[in-house]
Amino acid sequence: MKIFAFRGINVYLHWTWAIIAYFQLKLRYDTYSHVGWAAAEYLTLFLIVLLHEFGHALACRQAGGRADTIMLWPLGGVAFVQPPPRPGAHLWSIVAGPLVNVILIAPTVAAAWLYNGGVFGETRGNLGEFLFIIAVINIALLVFNLLPVYPLDGGQILRSILWFMIGPTNSLLIASMIGVAASAVGLLISLRLAMIWLSVMAGFALWQSLAGFQRARAGMKWENLPRHRHAACPGCGSHPPAVPGWRCDACGQQFDMVATAGACPHCQAQYEAIPCPECGRHSPPMDWLRAAVMPTAR
Ligand SMILES: [Zn+2]
Ligand SMILES: [Zn+2]
Ligand SMILES: [Zn+2]
Question: Is this prediction's pTM over 0.85?
């Protein structure tokens, strides 16, 4: 369900959110003298999550990437971001989320502290309890997100830092392996303790880490393909793989488009431009050859 859009970023609310809201209200009902405070607490929690996700999305945009969807669901939020394939752009897109929580520490803690008369832990009435719990939630979210377990922000920050040293594929391989190990342990412990929410989250993290691991393995395969050294993409400068990896639209068969200069050997269809498997840009065969000779002429 779409709730609103800001600067072209669409914010969606997953329907299961309402179910969890109901249980959360029941759980927190006794803390306050009126259920409205429990509702305000839950809504503020999601406001903080939303600001965190906007941190990711706006930073990704700033780095030149794509970000147009934020999904809020019971376990938190997800900003669907596609930063450019550079470690710095990835790092900034990820760091900007937790940075929002860091910025929120001072005002939320100060409000709770001042209202409750300079004592932390003891609260004065509904508003005091509300301010206290919001400050705690913000810090808890920050600490949890910074755990170095892929796909949490901390795990992705670790991956971006490793990327500077060992490249995109090996960094993803290491970060996702740590993620698989940690979330598997987390899943076993939380199942053992019958903590349902923690089990669901650990299960989700395990699934995402395995997906990251698969992507890293696919990336290794891709990097190990033989390359056409005499041709390069005019858009991104990468050497195209020397394999029959292009599909002919006319006959549906696969062929090596660079080797044949755009001519399908199966049906003789001729293509004016060769699409780059790395960046997607279409360029005429001659430009692929020129770019390999003069790599600066982009
Ligand atoms: Zn985040
Ligand atoms: Zn390219
Ligand atoms: Zn063909």
Answer: no
